[in-house]
Amino acid sequence: MPPKRKSSSIPANAASANNYTDASGSAPNKRSRIAKPLDKAFTKGESPANSTARNTENGAPGEPVEKDEGDFDHSRPEERAGIVDRRYYPAEMSNERCAMYNSNEITRPIESLEKALKDTKQGREKVQSGKEGGHGDAVVHWFKRDLRIRDNTGLSKAAELAKEKGVGLIGVWIMSPQDWEAHLVSPPKCDFELRSVGLLKQELAELDIPLHIETVPERKKVKERLVELVQEWNVKNVFCNLEYEPDELRREAQLIRMMLEKGVSFEPYHDDCVVPPGNLKTGGGRQYAVYSPWYRAWVAHLHAHPHLLNERPMPEKNPASVRQKFRKLFDSKVPDLPDSKSLSTEEKERFQHLWPAGEAAAIDRIERFLTEKVEKYKDTRNFPALNSTGRVSVHHAAGTLSARTSVRMAQDVNSAKKLDGGKEGVKGWIGEVAWRDFYRHVLVNWPYVCMNKPFKYEYTNIDWEYNEAHFTAWKEGRTGYPIVDAAMRCLNHTGYMHNRLRMITASFLAKHLLLDWRLGEQFFISHLIDGDFASNNGGWGFSASTGVDPQPYFRIFNPWTQSERFDEQGEFIRLWVKELEGVDAPAIHNPYLAGGDAAKKAKKNGYPEPVVEHKFARERCLARYKAGIGRETA
């Protein structure tokens, strides 16, 4: 059994906290990414005593972040800190290999997929025509991160072919606990997906379409099990929508060939992005590595190809015979959360209240945002206390709402049909959806970002800290920087964090604490209910200055000025940091520097002093980044 999770650290404000967000959350993961400490020094060439002394020179005691030894390269501190989960992934890629991707010496996963499609094109067309093996008894759509029946490309194509061939449509959804573990999916997100699957099953049943639900414990056996199922049902055509992580692209490339060997056509479609990754290129034919010119190309492409925003037709009702022929498939049940992702009864109720699941909730959420909040979005989006953002990211992440639908609905309420024109709020929000597309474009073209390497892989050489005390203080919201602590406590309780706060907390971990940014990236993805690898990785790369189109490394957020600017009266801080509830602004932003009653109240209520001094942290960060960037690549 997994270890018991700690209860929320802020029970005093549970009622108000539970109403903080009305649709987007996540909670702490059951299993800490940090396990038993090792006896050896965590940095090359340092003794344990020396390494601890270096980490505590600012007065905060603590041990390096370390894990079980396993099959790690102990000369690298990041390996010893458990950055790479060796149960599922190989050791960290070298910088040289990253460079080989950039010089096209290594085949990208998307290229393997495209080659598989090209090599099998004629064979798949023969299967679809029915000239070889007939039409079968049904067409299958494999649901993954597309848990909806509306505006679903793969499902729509499957339904169209089923109708054309006069056979039924079957849906299948496979739960792989190992996939959730390997991808660090948060328990609240797993719960949200299961709730959404249950609602999807009900909607499909109203159309006499069965949704077969099955658990495959070992992630590597998902492909084989899917092949077995379609053979068992005498299916000749299988459809799905693409996921863009390397393992998933390779899996689909293999399935194309595996299925065809069994006389089955496997058809994966682009659906997760408004514009498929790789479609936009510079004048020189290269992929964009900067958002602004990419965004201009994205807008121009959609203006030139408006059909990309068209809604995909919903499936029609299955023939009456399908219920009889496949009656057992209608009886499959939604499984419970696996032990590694379990939630307490209180946590389940909390997340269900905060984050209603399913497609209907997604549509309701975005309609209310576009009706009530989008006009002021540009002016209010950076203020977390206002609850003024869309908060549909949880639905985008689970696929209960497509990015295409979001852009189309926003365009419908705009005063101009141009995506980069009209109301500033609408234009700004569409730009945020475009960022989601952009980070998927990066993931597909620079796949090593999904392999524990930063986009700027030379930044691997920065000498990061691995201080357990600092990491714990950051995770628990006890750093002594109120805006950081409020944000982290909000994340731990709701599974959600406002985007401005994500930047502040990420910058603080990477630049003030100088902790390896990947520790923070993994903590976020394992706690966010809207966890999404591409967007999370892109956001951390931006904040730590290691990613695509980042803020310069010498730009270091001052948490106090960020707090004063975006939570001027301290409303958000008071909601989550109850120790400072009685402290007025502006003292609430830095009570110990303010002194007087503010410092007395903070100390009396047990609020910690800052774990690191701002000036010291800034100078250390600049020196460490400059030194790391100047070293030879590993």
Strand content: under 5%
Enumerate the strands of the largest sheet in spatial order, edge to edge or round the barrel: 3-2-1-4-5
Low-pLDDT regions = 1-18, 21-74
Distance between the ends: 39 Å
Helix/strand/pairing class, anyone?
mainly alpha
List the helices and strands and how they pair.
Layout: H1 14-18, H2 48-55, H3 77-80, H4 95-102, H5 109-119, H6 121-129, E1 138-143, H7 153-165, E2 168-175, H8 177-182, H9 187-205, E3 211-215, H10 222-232, E4 235-241, H11 246-261, E5 265-269, H12 291-304, H13 321-325, H14 345-354, H15 359-372, H16 377-380, H17 393-398, H18 403-413, H19 424-445, H20 468-476, H21 482-494, H22 499-512, H23 517-525, H24 533-543, H25 559-566, H26 571-576, H27 591-594, H28 596-604, H29 614-630
Parallel strand pairs: 1-2, 1-4, 2-3, 4-5
Helix pairs in contact: 5-11, 12-19, 15-18, 18-19, 19-24, 21-22, 22-24, 23-24
